[in-house]
Design goal:
It comes from Cynoglossus semilaevis. It is found in: Cell junction, Tight junction; Cell membrane. It is a single-pass type I membrane protein. This protein has three domains: about 100 residues, Immunoglobulin-like, CATH 2.60.40; about 100 residues, Immunoglobulin-like (Sandwich), CATH 2.60.40; about 30 residues. Helix content is about 20%, strand content about 35%. The protein has three helices and 21 strands. The strands form five sheets. Strands 2-11-10-5-6-7 form a six-stranded mixed β-sheet, with no helix packed on it. Strands 13, 15, 16, 19, 20 and 21 form a six-stranded mixed β-sheet that branches. β10 and β11 form a beta hairpin. The chain is elongated, with a radius of gyration of 49 Å. It starts with a helix and ends in a 41-residue tail after the last helix.
Length: about 325
């Protein structure tokens, strides 16, 4: 249509005045419209970031928008931890996707059942030797979601009214990391107890990232069966219910324990005093006669104790 209008305009202008400038303009316009320009190979993808659920199929798209070469060389590479490896090379699937994927025309890769090990970057490369731009590539990031397994839950069996306690929940298999929810008697606890009339007086705090459920002051109404649920985009799992009992403060029990402790203390004191009076804790030999005879002077012999008379020594001076 544009070409017909241009020819009509050209004829009208040519009847009035045919100039070289008009002829030159007409030549370049016809060349740009009717003669195709030479282009290189160009790739695109529908999604550069792709999420897939484990054990489900996923297709990585590599669309060839323009190309002149009839039989281009197509390759796919998997890049994990910075290390590339072939996925599609020399017209066949290789590597850890062998028997689990296929190339779909013109250059898409279909993975039949994705696993968590397929999480990586994938690069589509197309080489076209007959094109002016003979090479192009595109990078796609694949992340495989993994459903959580049953989390490990820790619920105290018995707590006392007014004390603090914490319930724990942990799961390490799910990807991305799951969020945690807590249930009491099959009813989900709201993240903020103030938003619910039933739990408005509760003092608990839920951490959805770590799975902790902490009670600052336990009430009688907090008794019941508890279980935790771990959830992400791939699914959810939960632990078996566990019962938590809440008891009143045992004043009589506390009194009896204190009374027993006082009795034990006084018995111990009486035992120590009794043995102190008997001298059982004195040092051995403390009652023995420690009298020491005076030392004898040099040169004087006082004689034996059984002698009946005094005997002078040769050193005695008259």
């Amino acid at each position: 249509m544009q070409l017909q209008l241009l020819l009509l305009t050209f004829k009208q202008s040519a009847t009035k005045m045919a100039t070289p400038r008009l002829l030159l303009f007409f030549f370049f316009y016809i060349s740009s419209v009717c003669i195709p320009s030479s282009v290189g190979v160009t790739l695109r993808t529908t999604d550069k970031i792709v999420w897939a659920n484990e054990f489900e199929p996923i297709e990585l798209t590599c669309v060839i928008e323009s190309i002149s070469t009839n039989n281009p060389r197509i390759e796919w590479k998997k890049i994990k931890n910075g290390v590339p490896s072939y996925v599609y090379f020399q017209k066949k699937i290789s590597g850890d996707l062998e028997h689990r994927a296929q190339l779909r025309e013109p250059a898409n890769i279909l993975i039949f059942n994705t696993t968590r090990s397929d999480t990586a970057e994938y690069r589509c490369e197309v080489a076209a030797i007959d094109d002016q731009r003979d090479f192009d590539e595109i990078l796609i990031s694949l992340a495989v979601r993994v459903k959580p397994v049953a989390p490990r839950c820790s619920v105290p069996g018995s707590v006392t009214v007014g004390t603090s306690t914490e319930l724990r929940c942990l799961e390490n298999e799910g990807f991305p990391a799951p969020q945690y929810r807590w249930f009491q008697n099959n009813e989900e606890l709201p993240q903020d107890p103030k938003t619910s009339l039933k739990f408005a007086n509760s003092s608990y705090i839920i951490n959805p990232d770590t799975g902790g459920l902490k009670f600052r002051r336990v009430r009688k109404a907090d008794a019941g069966e508890y279980y935790c649920q771990a959830r992400n985009d791939a699914g959810h799992a939960q632990c078996p219910p566990q019962k938590m009992e809440v008891h009143d403060v045992d004043i009589l029990g506390i009194f009896l324990k204190c009374f027993a402790a006082v009795i034990v203390f006084f018995c111990l004191v009486a035992f120590v005093c009794h043995y102190l009076r008997r001298g059982c804790f004195h040092k051995k030999g403390s009652n023995e006669n420690n009298y020491k005879w005076p030392a004898q002077r040099d040169g004087v012999d006082y004689g034996d104790a059984d002698e009946g008379h005094f005997r002078h020594k040769s050193s005695f001076i008259i």
